[in-house]
Design the sequence.
């Protein structure tokens, strides 16, 4: 009998504790909820990149327990499958169903061009954390007042890289790049800067996006070129250097940032050693902030962060900074864009601020793939060793905004290949 | 007209009336999905005309959707044409370009039947994709073309409700037109060709011409769907004319039931809701979609529309069996 009463009492106590907890719980959820939609390819050939993107974002949120300056963040991820129309439909879902304050992400440049009009039409903030399509923040900027870019634009890193290539004494370079907007812009930027300082692009090859067999292209590459400049994306990055070396080609490899990004690097072999690429991030940047980031990320997700992870991590940092200034309240669309434009951030990749067209001004790192022990990890691994840093690079490099915007956007046919043989 | 037919028509009308009444009050996202269903429903109708009534399985129907969609986007993008009441012209031009494209492709495709027809339409569809993807100066290549706003002709179609009503009206018109078509002597001839082309030819019908006309008409409906497709999404990209869209259209018809007209739109509804709605809830939605396809083909060869017939026969079977058991019990 006593036993029964005791049991009842303990059940009652338990129920009351739970109720009390729930009540106190509801009291703390008084904070403003900010809904963030996130688009990343979670299926298809770019699925691994999509996971890197999401993980970077998630990691910052987890570090802050989902609370940015007092605002509760509701993080909603949708699978864009790496296809522009699917991304548009998912963005419409995020806007209409989830009523998000902003949507972030997308991977390919073409997706960026597809998502930006959605932000204008629906009057919702779009943060392009990865899509690097030049014109989002250049010639078409006035069409997209609610687009903010926290990543980079395609030609931003290859402008200084072109000068670096001149400094190395390269004269004649062949380019091999994925045949879509991003590839055209990255290679266009390199060509422009490289030919400005006296170099010559002697051949341009355009394999289709997603090409895995470069057999038809390798024999075409001119044997007397001083170097080969590549722009590979996703699985292409893995395939190219392997086949290049297997074909016995000797000219040094240069490339856009995605050609030897940390997304692919852990899966590459010694064939990648010496590959020089340019980007606003490298997992090997020798700063305490980056070391901490790399270590945390690696212990959490089991791999070195790529720029896809870092860029989204930094994106949350931007949002956090805005919310700090508004005490965790959503400031409204126009106001958010205004505030984010004034922010100077010390991020994992270095100091970052946004220019008038909402594109980051940041360090560009020239990185060489090196096999070494780094950050106290026991094994020799491939790292993107930073060989030169160009500080405070804007999307217009040293061309000047006015003159730069007079030329058309880089494309398959611009700059024209005047020195092609 | 048989009594049974009248009952069926009444059911379809009631369902469509309910859709028209319910959708304006639905949640924003659901409304968008219903609109998408209706657009793809028009495409599915065009596939059904070929597959269900003529016996031609086309794997290139996305090509005509693409023609209508690109025409709309290019005219808006280049000439700002089609953003006002000239939308009505665009709709006619969309139908015309789809029909013209089909009239050209039909010259090659209609010669073949069965698997060969499937392969030729697939190849022709890929030609259109190739043009969309590589003719950068016209189609924007891989980036496609963005259409920043929907037309405004007294009624502002950038309002989703108005746009839904526009698509809804055109869907109802398409369904009616298709119904009239397949029940006309022309339509009955198509069914005759489906059943036995040799016999129809022997009876003196020009079967090639009948099939060709059906192909052209289907192309026209595809083009119409394309016009709406562009304004629905605000973008047209080579992904929209790629093989998966053609396959989807074919599967929608198979899923709903070929040769039933309403089967296609029902299939479209199932596919759209699994792909666009369920996918936002669970990550393994593709298994569900695949499972639905496999189960339908294994157990419901006549599609979801066959389900009703199946239930009916099952019920009569059972009552007969019970009757038989009861009578046998009496004997015992």
Sequence:
């Amino acid at each position: 009998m006593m036993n029964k009463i005791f049991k009842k009492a303990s059940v009652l106590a338990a129920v009351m504790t739970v109720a009390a907890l729930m009540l106190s719980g509801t009291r703390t959820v008084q904070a403003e909820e900010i809904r963030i939609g996130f688009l990343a390819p979670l299926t298809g050939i770019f699925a691994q990149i999509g996971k890197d993107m999401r993980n970077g974002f998630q990691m910052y949120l987890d570090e802050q327990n989902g609370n940015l300056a007092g605002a509760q963040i509701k993080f909603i991820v949708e699978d864009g499958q790496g296809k522009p129309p699917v991304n548009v439909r998912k963005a419409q879902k995020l806007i209409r169903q989830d009523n998000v304050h902003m949507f972030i992400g997308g991977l390919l440049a073409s997706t960026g061009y597809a998502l930006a009009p959605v932000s204008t039409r629906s009057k919702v903030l779009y943060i392009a954390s990865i899509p690097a399509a030049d014109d989002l923040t250049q010639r078409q900027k006035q069409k997209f007042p609610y687009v903010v870019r926290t990543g980079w634009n395609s030609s931003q890193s290859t402008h200084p890289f072109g000068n670096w290539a001149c400094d190395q004494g390269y004269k004649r370079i062949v380019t091999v790049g994925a045949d879509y907007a991003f590839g055209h812009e990255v290679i266009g930027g390199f060509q422009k800067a490289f030919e400005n300082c006296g170099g010559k692009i002697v051949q341009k090859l355009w394999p289709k996006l997603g090409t895995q067999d470069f057999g038809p292209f390798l024999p075409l590459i001119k044997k007397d070129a001083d170097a080969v400049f590549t722009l590979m994306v996703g699985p292409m990055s893995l395939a190219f250097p392997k086949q290049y070396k297997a074909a016995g080609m000797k000219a040094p490899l240069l490339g856009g940032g995605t050609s030897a990004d940390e997304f692919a690097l852990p899966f590459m072999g010694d064939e990648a050693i010496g590959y020089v690429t340019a980007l606003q991030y490298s997992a090997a940047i020798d700063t305490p902030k980056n070391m901490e980031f790399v270590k945390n990320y690696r212990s959490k997700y089991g791999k070195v962060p790529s720029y896809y992870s870092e860029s989204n991590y930094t994106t949350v940092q931007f949002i956090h900074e805005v919310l700090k200034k508004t005490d965790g309240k959503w400031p409204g669309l126009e106001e958010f864009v205004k505030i984010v434009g004034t922010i100077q951030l010390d991020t994992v990749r270095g100091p970052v601020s946004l220019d008038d067209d909402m594109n980051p001004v940041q360090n560009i790192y020239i990185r060489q793939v090196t096999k070494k022990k780094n950050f106290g990890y026991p094994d020799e691994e491939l790292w993107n060793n930073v060989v030169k840093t160009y500080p405070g690079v804007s999307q217009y490099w040293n061309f000047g905004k006015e003159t730069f915007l007079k030329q058309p956007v880089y494309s398959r046919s611009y700059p024209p290949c005047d020195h092609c043989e | 007209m048989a009594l049974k037919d009248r009952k069926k028509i009444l059911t379809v009308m009631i369902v469509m009336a309910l859709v028209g009444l319910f959708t304006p009050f639905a949640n924003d996202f659901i409304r968008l999905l219903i609109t998408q269903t209706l657009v793809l429903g028009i495409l599915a109708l065009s596939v059904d005309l070929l597959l269900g009534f003529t016996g031609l399985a086309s794997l290139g129907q996305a090509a005509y959707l693409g023609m209508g969609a690109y025409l709309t986007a290019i005219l808006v993008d280049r000439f700002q044409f089609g953003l006002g009441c000239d939308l009505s012209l665009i709709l006619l031009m969309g139908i015309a370009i789809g029909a013209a494209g089909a009239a050209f492709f039909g010259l090659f495709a209609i010669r073949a039947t069965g698997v060969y027809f499937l392969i030729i339409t697939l190849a022709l569809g890929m030609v259109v994709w190739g043009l969309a993807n590589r003719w950068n100066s016209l189609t924007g290549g891989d980036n496609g073309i963005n259409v920043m706003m929907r037309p405004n002709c007294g009624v502002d179609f950038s309002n989703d409700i108005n746009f839904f009503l526009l698509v809804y009206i055109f869907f109802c018109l398409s369904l009616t037109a298709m119904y009239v078509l397949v029940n006309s002597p022309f339509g009955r001839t198509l069914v005759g060709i489906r059943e036995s082309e040799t016999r129809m030819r022997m009876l003196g019908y020009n079967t090639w011409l009948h099939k060709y006309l059906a192909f052209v008409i289907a192309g026209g409906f595809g083009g119409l769907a394309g016009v709406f497709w562009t304004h629905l999404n605000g973008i047209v990209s080579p992904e929209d004319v790629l093989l998966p869209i053609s396959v989807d259209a074919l599967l929608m018809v198979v899923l709903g039931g070929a040769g039933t007209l309403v089967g296609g739109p029902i299939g479209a509804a199932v596919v759209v809701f699994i792909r666009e709605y369920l996918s936002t809830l669970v990550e393994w939605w593709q298994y569900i979609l695949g499972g639905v396809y496999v189960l339908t083909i294994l157990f419901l060869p006549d599609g979801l529309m066959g389900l009703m017939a199946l239930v009916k026969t099952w019920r009569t079977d059972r009552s007969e069996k019970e009757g038989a058991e009861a009578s046998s019990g009496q004997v015992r």
Observations:
- The radius of gyration of chain B is 21 Å.
- Chain B has two domains: 12-301, 306-332.
- DSSP finds 14 helices and four strands in chain B.
- The first helix of chain B runs from residue 3 to 22.
